[in-house]
Design a protein that fits this description.
There is one protein chain. By secondary structure, the protein is mainly beta. 8% of the residues lie in helices and 36% in strands. The chain is built from two helices and five strands. It has a five-stranded antiparallel β-sheet with strand order 1-2-3-4-5. A hairpin with a 2-residue loop joins strand 2 and strand 3.
């Protein structure tokens, strides 16, 4: 069998290399729970002491375009004193690329500060 790494006809596109990328692509909603190191629920955030972390809601949009992958995440936490107060929304972006192995694996790029 020919080594895919050196095969010029082998695709560098993530979705061509592994079907998992097509199955993961899309908008996802989830419910998240935070725990302390002793496995007890972490009810309130550490920074402000105002926002519920047990549970909170996350939205992720996963896109795979050619050799690139993008994950955009938004997390929503309610205010501890109820819906009449503003909650907290945070976001994170992660970028990935296919590897030279051409085996369906992807690596994420390091965060820049």
């Amino acid at each position: 069998e020919k080594d895919k790494r050196y095969d010029e006809s082998a695709s560098i596109e993530l979705k061509d290399q592994s079907e998992i990328w097509s199955k993961l692509e899309g908008l996802w909603e989830d419910t998240r729970y935070s725990y302390l190191p002793n496995y007890q629920p972490k009810e309130i955030d550490d920074i402000f002491g105002l926002f519920k972390l047990f549970p909170y809601t996350g939205f992720q949009n996963l896109t795979f375009d050619g050799s690139r992958g993008y994950r955009h995440t938004i997390l929503l936490s309610a205010h501890k004193d109820g819906p009449t107060n503003n909650g907290l929304a945070t976001y994170a972006d992660v970028f990935a690329t296919s590897t030279h192995e051409k085996d369906g694996s992807a690596i994420t790029l390091p965060l820049q500060s």
